Amino acid sequence: MTDLLQGLNPAQREAVTATEGFVRVVAGAGSGKTRALTHRFAYLVNELGILPGNILCVTFTNKSAGEMRQRIHALTGDNDTGYINTFHGFCVSVLQEDSHAVQYPRSFLVLDNSDIDAMLQIIYEERGLTLRDMTFSAARDMIEIQKLFQRPDYYRDLTALSLDALKEKYDRAVSPADIIFYGYLYQEKKCFGLDYNDLIKFSLYIFQTHPDIKLKWQQRLEYIMIDEFQDIDQLQYELMEVLCGYHKNLFIVGDPDQTIYTWRGANVKYLLEFDQKFPDARTIFLLDNYRSTPEILAAANSLISKNQNRIPKELRPTRPSGPPVLCQFAESQEQEARWMVSEMKALHGQGVPYRDMTVLYRAHYVTRTVEQVLLEEKLPYTIYSGVQFFQRAEIKDALSYLRMIVYRDDLSFRRVANVPKRNLGKRRMAFLEEYAQKHGCTLYQALTDSLEDPVFKGTKAAAFTSLVELFSAGYENRPISEVLSALLNESGYEAMLRTEGSQERLDNLAELKQSIYEYETTCGEESTLEHYLSHVALFTNADAGEPGDKVKLMTVHAAKGLEFPYVFLCGMNEGIFPSRKVRTLPGMEEERRLAFVAFTRAERGLYLSEADGRNFDGSPRYPSRFLLDIDPGLLAFPQEPQEGLIRDARSYIDHSLRHLPETDQTGRFSPGQRVEHAMFGPGTVLEVDLDRRAYSVQFDAMETPRKISFRARLDRLPPE
């Protein structure tokens, strides 16, 4: 026990040894919360004798789950590390065990955005829709809104209706929104696919309708720990309530000052009001910061103290003093970028590698001038976003090959049947589509049934089916990384890339194999191909880093959970950070929390900058209120800002605050919603324009859409 508690501060030790009941840990940025979580897990296993398989530990990214798994394995020496996963990943485990309760097979597909887009493509082609009716991005958003808010019982259609009954609903649909929604449900049911929202919805539904299954999971999970609790949404909260209902041992860790995801459903009230929901809850504060210098923390504390809706606390520094936080008021965006690059070159001259420097910003468009100057000065850099690693074409192709040998699903078939070329073009694919529709089978089954048909003469269809059958019969006892290497070789996929000279794509495949190898070594006996495929759809860009000695460029949202020796936070102007899209006081507080997150990513040096001049619409640019929130004595200015500029900025900010309401008045309707106007009659919402605070509505009696203000009276109509 002394080994596990050694090196922990008193608050961390209290958190680790508080094993029973409801415990809330309010953990400031950089306060060692992951250390407390992993040591608590090990304490439960090593000291109390709890079996790892009876512990659930929830994190919010697959990367952090993987790191936690490795740390816990090192502390316990046990290959079984229980359920260390995201909420969605845990639900995959529930459904793989109990999906029979909703008539789904264990081998269901977990769908990501590219799978959803492939389904939308089929729907649009079948029903003659175009991107003018709705873009794929808007359609994905519409489906999510329908599932979460407007048709929350949709899962009953997926579970109770037959495929033919769903197809009938799809065929009867008239409006683009209904066609897309029911077409998507039909496509999901057809391949037994589940998207992110379905995973939690289906798990909750099983628990609601099968008390025996609910009790089984409640009894199994003797201890539940949840990290990043400030980011939890309503469905996740409902799931948590169910799971801890038997043993009532719930340990949550979070920081109200780092709630930055309300736009995707996170609700900080669950953390703030935890002690009201569970009156016997114990609260522990982790405030000793092990990441940043006192100078950085002083600026961060000064900034976040201006928020009202929070638990008052101050981070305490443990690191030695460092340089002051530098704040540059530049005359133009180009001068701002040149100042940043000159500071980077000075750091590099002192022996700091470029990879230790990170540029953070509120929105991607801010980087144009920064990139221009970095290129001009020949400083290496990489943008930490763009096409996400697991969304790259070659990675999706490789994973589709793996899915083919396990599931033989239509989505994977469409993706790789003719990659590399096997003469299975549009005409032959149309033949397979028609056969599959007629016989109620998959496209792969249609191909195997039709190999002798003259239409496939001169193709490599038989070679493709032989490849799938060969690997299907022999993958179970082989490492996943080995199976993938052999598949990519024998399918001719890697040979195709070598012929094309696509070295970058080959390098990405090598990185995928390495990531699978690491997955196998950390997951132990769980590392089956089915388990991997069910979880890889949940991976994010944070799960793959960018190598090399390069300056990193990324949004503040992408930087959440990361830390960097030197941080350059640029574009600190009103309308940029905070965003001009902020419409409420709670929204402004979230923007301030986002700035706080950016500040607390920095370990040794923090550089803040803004640029004067004018915006594209001719209006003057003002420094961000977040720069003015900080006690000026905590900042160092390379050149003192003009007093007139600060005075004008404060006047502008005071005026804007008077127009910020306490609550959001924008979200009554969403794309696809049917509404009625007193004069124009019924219509369909096409878009929501937050900037102009208006809906674009196509009224049934009009040929062209109209912009209708949020202030206007619109009544909700039931779906047709």
Architecture overview:
With 720 residues, the protein is of the alpha/beta class. Helix content is 47%, strand content 14%. The protein is built from 31 helices and 22 strands. The strands form 5 sheets. Strands 13-14-12-15-16-11-17 form a 7-stranded parallel beta sheet. A hairpin with a 3-residue loop joins strand 18 and strand 19 (681-689). The radius of gyration is 27 Å and the shape is globular.
Largest beta-sheet details: 7 strands, parallel
What shape does the CA trace take? globular
**Low-confidence region ranges:** 541-545
Count the E strands.
22
Helix residue percentage: 40-55%
The structure class reads alpha/beta
Biggest β-sheet: strands ordered side by side in the sheet:
13-14-12-15-16-11-17
Average pLDDT score: 90
The proportion of residues in beta strands is 5-15%
Number of helices: 31
Instruction: Measure the end-to-end span.
Output: 64 Å
Radius of gyration over C-alpha positions, nearest whole angstrom:
27 Å
